[in-house]
Amino acid sequence: MFIGHYALAFASKKIDKLPSLAILFVAVQFLDLLWPIFVLLGIETFEIEAGNTAMTPINFTSYPYSHSLLMSIIWAILFALVYFLITKNKKGSVLIAALVFSHWILDFITHGADLQISPFSNTRVGLGLWNAPIFEMIFEIGLFATGIYMYFKTVNPKRKIAFWSLTLFFLVIYLMNIYGPPPPSTSAVAWSANAMWIFVIWAWWIEKK
Ligand SMILES: [Zn+2]
Prior knowledge:
Elements: H1 3-11, H2 21-28, H3 30-40, E1 45-48, E2 58-62, H4 64-67, H5 69-87, H6 90-110, E3 115-116, E4 124-125, H7 133-155, H8 160-179, H9 186-193, H10 197-207
Antiparallel strand pairs: 1-2, 3-4
The protein binds zinc ion.
């Protein structure tokens, strides 16, 4: 799941306009922003294995600190707490906690059974929508289109070119991940995953006054 996560960030402007799109992007992708850091530090591991699921060659062998159910709840609470201490925005804080946790729910729907319940349990879950590409694409692109529509209706962004080019860029990357060649190495994946911070800066630019 990639653009589906961002869909919820876009859509949530309808609930509270105060959190910036950049913060919302960090929230929905927080687990995936931690993941490459933990991988590069050697705390978490993955392998490239063609056909692991129909839609991705990545075999998530161990990622309990960024992606277990228990840790995703803890990250959600911590993130929301920091946000609340800075902004005193109660509604926004609850929204942000829900967005951080939503990442796990969407991964649970798409990933194979590789998400641990907690770092201390080896029970792994995942519904594996990635094994049904047509349905995955209808689901994810549908979510994304809904999010984009809701953001556009609610916010009516001033920097329209920045907004639409980001939308297009997301779609291109999503399709390249599916139809492009498999990644050359695990370290290439981990390093390029850090490039997701570009979207945060892009979101900040879209809303910059
Ligand atoms: Zn994830």
